[in-house]
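If you are new to this repository, start here. Below is one unmodified record pulled from the training split, so you can see the exact layout before writing a loader.
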Amino acid sequence: MAELQEVQIMEEKPLLPGQTPEAAKTHSVETPYGSVTFTVYGTPKPKRPAILTYHDVGLNYKSCFQPLFQFGDMQEIIQNFVRVHVDAPGMQEGAPVFPLGYQYPSLDQLADMIPCILQYLNFSTIIGFGVGAGAYILSRYALNHPDTVEGLVLINIDPNAKGWMDWAAHKLTGLTSSLSEMILGHLFSQEELSGNSEFIQKYRNIISHAPNLENIELYWNSYNNRRDLNIERGSDNTLKCPVMLVVGDQAPHEEAVVECNSKLDPTQTSFLKMADSGGQPQLTQPGKLTEAFKYFLQGMGYMASSCMTRLSRSRTASLTSAASIDGNRSRSRTMSQSSESGTLPSGTPGHTMEVSC
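And here is the target side for that same chain:
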């Protein structure tokens, strides 16, 4: 696999006592659908998958994931896993604008680029971590290559193609709203946009003044033209790995994530609905999401000695069992919680849990 470029950069993040900056390498490789850029942090760990992230429309890997992976409690995780941050074509910092008439890859084709990345890096398995369009892309990849995916964290996933009513609403909105406003409505809740906080102003400025806005529109169009994943519980066309679904309450994609949860195997699925997190919980609630991610990894058999603090001490969290199961499984993959003990006891094996925190 041909390598087009490789540069040394340093991740800018607040360092914990005794830590040194983590070196990163950015690569670009050719695929059947064009070039794709990705950044690798850390070194491969024996018998451990890589964490591979994929960002949403209007963002790149830094604006989508940096607050989460720079969070203090996340350092324990990134010390134990190599991670690969994929930028969709034309979304990386400094990306040139595609020429007029450029045929941007479909989301299915973007998923088909991932094997080229893993082949280049000589990585055999991953834990996927995607948001929005990125969650869809990683799900499509997992459906096509189930043996290479050990787990998935899917934030704001919509597994369905747009229906006629959705298309009509999208076209009508396009007549009265700018591209940046439509994308902001995809990323954030109406409450957040109405509040117009400094946080929202920051991302509104990032998107509306992006030098590659034409490229962003191409990615946006591919997302809106996505096919239905056609996932069905109990069928051959389903996600076969452990899955953690995440959505903020009142987020734009709450109903879609709930529907996705109903289509997945309850013995393999955890559903995390986060209060006060808006449309992008990885940006607004990195502490809670880090704690949930650690617990998810523990359920997969990794980081058994990791300490849990935040979720376990939450007094406002609620648990509801969403489904029962047939058969047994060897590892608990449910979200469960104790409000006082400071520990996270296992939930009833084989149940999908909803955790509001």
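Two things worth knowing about this chain: The radius of gyration is 19 Å. Residues 60 and 91 are 6 Å apart (CA to CA).
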